[in-house]
Amino acid sequence: MTTAINIRPVPADVPKLPLLEISNLAVGYRGSDGFQRVVHEVCLLVRPGEVVALVGESGSGKTTTAQAVIGLLAENGRVEAGAVRLNGTDIAGWSQRQLDTIRGSRISLIPQDPTSSLNPVKTIGAQVAEVLQIHRQGSRAEIDARVIELLTRVGLSQPELRAKQYPHELSGGMRQRVLIAIAIALRPALIIADEPTSALDVTVQKRILDLIDELRREYGTAVLLVTHDLGVAADRANHIVVLKGGRIQEQGPTAEVLAFPRSEYTRKLLADAPSLGKARAVPRIRSPLISGSDDAIAVESLVQDFSIGGNREVFRAVDGVSFTVKRGTTHAIVGESGSGKTTTARSIVGFQKPTSGRILVDGIDVTILRGENLRQFRKTIQLVYQNPFASLDPRQTIFQIVEEPLLNFDPLPREDRAKKVHAILERVGLPQSVLARKPRALSGGQRQRVAIARALVLDPQVLVLDEAVSALDVTVQAQILALLDELQQALGLTYLFISHDLAVVRQISDTVSVLHNGRQVDSGPVEDVFLRPGSSYTRELISAIPGQRGIGQH
Prior knowledge:
The chain has 554 residues and is of the alpha/beta class.
């Protein structure tokens, strides 16, 4: 049996009764050594029309808490104690069949990853229609019309065309809008948004969050927002709940938590969040180990074309990009997906020959290198990838991973290699005890330190960091950024930092190039570009950085 959920306007002077009430919730997972509790005595309220943000690092229990609300825990998970009341009815013990009657209609989910959340072999229209069919929301013609209405409502261009397309034919932002269309199809009272924008560029993220806000105001829907991004929580939530180790550290009105955090953990999260900390920070004064006018990287009129289709059609990914990077400094390349930033980086590293233009790295013209000369050049410049979970060989030990580059270039005696591996591991702040382990035994932050150690073991002059901190939680991200700064100061390294996170870019970079559709639309010292952007696109990027609404504006 289910309970009716009716959203009616509530007079301003009458407190709204909670739509969702979680009381003393405890959740555990069955492992090889029995059940392990990961959520402990969580209590929170969500009222109609309100956004409550669950924030914390990976492993804090925020996603598990959200999954327990909608009954989508993994097979080995279970609610061990506590209540989950929806409009006063405890649904914590409901069967899956009972929960199916309210999923979509009264409570719905916007999942994190639009790529894995949509069926690749079903059209967009069929997937939006499915929730309407399950809940018998009209005839075939009425459902088809409602699908087009929903796709239009979430801002998809050419909705009739989109309905006939498959997920792979849509961008990440468009796929996320489809998931929102599915979530709002039956106008539920509560939407659980689980990291709904973490995989999206900053401008797309803003548009998606604006859309959720608009729908919330229009329908009176409540939102339980799961996020590790305190900037997003600061901008969008009425109430923040801070989790660590499955326990609530503190909770309260957003402005109050931001201005007067009570727990040490919350204070650390706020200090580590670039988008919240930057407004209070003084721009850093750089003193590179190597001074002067020496350029470590010089890119001149770079053009990169790719052939597409079978009719010799050409796509220009990079169009006339030029910039220089002083030795011992950090230059950032920023832009949305498809802007050409990673293509530019791959050309600089020598992974692809440019269509035209010139690239000098440490005085070497990369564009004319071939064979052994190109291979040896790779000692000068090394790449650190975005995802430390995918960039390390799971079959190798940490020692083997860090040692491997030494075996590829003029092999040293075994004893000398071991000394170098031990020394570089110490340099990146890892204990020697990890050397015998494999990547799966390390945390995300430890894995990225290993990836940095592997890149540094050849004593390169330049590191290319391709979204190297975007997959990390805010506190781990802050630790890696501090490590990179320390290494740059100690070793005189030059960094080329590829990122879509402008808050991080402003925190760590000396100079920046902004790319849009392959063209450079802004370039110069980072503070100049942020304070006096020359293009409307750069102004849009900067205005989309979360966390700028400021404390006290809720």
